[in-house]
Design brief:
By secondary structure, this protein is an all-alpha fold. It has nine helices and no strands. It has one domain. Helices cover 80% and strands 0% of the residues. Helix 5 packs across helix 8.
């Protein structure tokens, strides 16, 4: 299985890999930026592709998560998954619940595991925040997270350049 995955990514252009990683729920910009930089891509290109990829799933999540999850919950295995997902997002969403859209932006902007656009959009959906304003807050959060991750990535890379 690992070999099949590696073969798939081997033929993927680096730009597509960065976009794909940034669109996935676990890696988002936190994973795509370091990978793009390690692949010796231009930092501005990595930055823009990562933001683009991380923004891609936001609107579908905000508008489709609730109706799709309701239909999927009819199946016991998927019901368990969505119950876990919503419970996890609810636990993480205190700042969003308290500060609403500003909280959503801050939550997404903090580049820690499980605080990105995916979890933020799940929480915004659960808290019934305005979808259009949530989209804007999520995009702002993604951009801030990308700046933080880019600074950290370039800083760490620079530190290792001088270590022998």
């Amino acid at each position: 299985m690992n070999e099949a995955i590696m073969n798939f990514f081997k033929d993927l252009p680096p730009e597509w890999l960065v976009v794909l990683l940034s669109a996935l729920p676990i890696s988002e910009v936190r994973g795509s930026i370091p990978v793009g930089i390690m692949m010796h891509m231009h930092p501005l290109k990595v930055f823009l592709l990562s933001i683009f990829g991380n923004i891609l799933p936001i609107l579908p999540l905000l508008y489709l998560l609730e109706p799709v999850s309701e239909k999927m919950r009819k199946f016991s295995l998927l019901k368990k998954f969505f119950d876990w997902l919503f419970e996890h997002a609810k636990k993480k969403s205190e700042v969003i619940e308290k500060y609403e859209l500003l909280g959503l932006m801050i939550f997404i902007a903090i580049p820690l595991p499980m605080t990105g656009a995916w979890t933020g959009c799940v929480a915004a959906s659960l808290l019934k925040l305005d979808k259009k304003l949530s989209f804007l807050a999520a995009v702002a959060g993604v951009m801030i997270a990308a700046v933080i991750v880019m600074i950290l990535t370039i800083g760490v890379k620079g530190c290792f350049m001088y270590v022998r």
